[in-house]
Specification:
The chain is mainly beta and 158 residues long. The protein has helices at residues 11-20, 121-129; strands spanning 3-7, 31-34, 54-60, 73-78, 86-87, 99-104, 110-116, 136-141, 147-154. The protein folds into two domains: 7-85, no CATH class; 87-153, no CATH class. The chain has two helices and nine strands. It has a six-stranded antiparallel sheet, covered by helices on one side. It has a three-stranded antiparallel sheet with strand order 2-3-4, covered by helices on one side.
């Protein structure tokens, strides 16, 4: 059985945005506000306590591969420090959110998009990765369309 690694954005990106109140990749201003929606936090992949937690909004570019087409968009992270999610288990707090799985070829070209429609997200992820040329996947919010997390095949899993 193939395993997958689920990960939030790099910790250094979130820390820099918190420190400077700017998007580390673009220099755009970042905004701190009380959470008005569930998010989730793109670093720890937990949903926000609406009306109770502060969050930071900034522009993030999820593609790091050479030759990939930039696709910057808004992301939220907790305003206070939190730990990056990086695990072999699907992020528990994303399970009930509207999710679209996007499969990408090496170099960042989009190969497939599939909605998770009430079933286990792992089944949709396995279907996307069953395509022979899929290098990695992104999880996107099925309502807002923004990037939530990255998924990679795990060849040497713990």
């Amino acid at each position: 059985m193939t395993a997958y690694r689920y990960s939030g954005i790099p910790s250094a990106i979130a820390m820099e945005a918190r420190r400077t109140l700017r998007s580390p990749q673009y220099g755009h201003p970042a905004y701190r506000e009380v959470a008005g929606g569930y998010g989730p936090c793109r670093l720890c992949l937990r949903t926000f306590a609406v009306g109770r937690e502060d969050r930071l909004l900034f522009t993030y570019q999820p593609f790091m591969e050479p030759g990939s087409l930039p696709a910057p968009g808004p992301v939220f992270v907790h305003a206070e420090s939190c730990a990056r999610y990086d695990a072999l288990e699907f992020p528990p707090e994303l399970r009930d959110l509207p999710i679209v799985v996007e499969g990408f070829r090496a170099g960042g070209s989009l190969a497939v998009q599939q909605r998770v429609n009430g079933g286990p997200p792992e089944e949709v992820i396995a279907t996307v990765f069953a395509m022979p040329d899929i290098a990695y996947a992104h999880l996107r919010n099925g309502e807002a369309g923004c990037f939530m997390a990255r998924v990679d095949r795990c060849f040497a899993c713990d």
